[in-house]
Amino acid sequence: RAAYEYTEAEDKSMRLGFLLIAAGLLSLLGLGCCWLRPALQERGGGGSANCTVLAVRQLGERFACTFSCGAACRGTARYPCLQVLVRTSRSSAPALLHEDERLTLLRNVSWQCSYIPPCARDDQENSENVTYKQKYWKEKVGSQPFTCYFNQHLRPDDVMLKRTHDETVLLHCFLWPVVTFLVGVLIVVLTICAKSLAIRAEAIKKKKH
Fold it and tell me: Rounded to two decimals, what is the model's pTM?
């Protein structure tokens, strides 16, 4: 009977294996419900298109943003709103370009802007950042076509320059919980096999004697 009992090292190995199995399953379940499923739903309602810049302009209105200058230091600054209007290969109507899905989900007035600069304490620095972005779209991109993305579940009349949930992120979201689960299974199986071989070797040794 003593031969079938696990040693302290084998017991720790089994616990580690079961812990990794549980962690992999819980991670896959949590990421699937809270992140992967919404990401796939967003991607399911969208697609890619070719975009061409029609106009780049700054609105006269300035919007407020909140900057942080320390643990207990916060303030409000302002930035000009930059709009990039494009024509897509799927529609002849002008569409407003956004950096990613984050801007299309905003519920405040900032959704009108194609670019929101990192909020600096100085309004002039915010204006310079926006002006630099405006020159980029006018001079470097110009009339050159580029790939953009749309999503019918968000704002069907707007397009995005990039997706937050791309294939690489989705792959890692699914890959690492599965790898954790498989490593846990491998540890448990190898521990059981090693114990079984040790018991058989002990039995053969007793028969010889």
Answer: 0.58
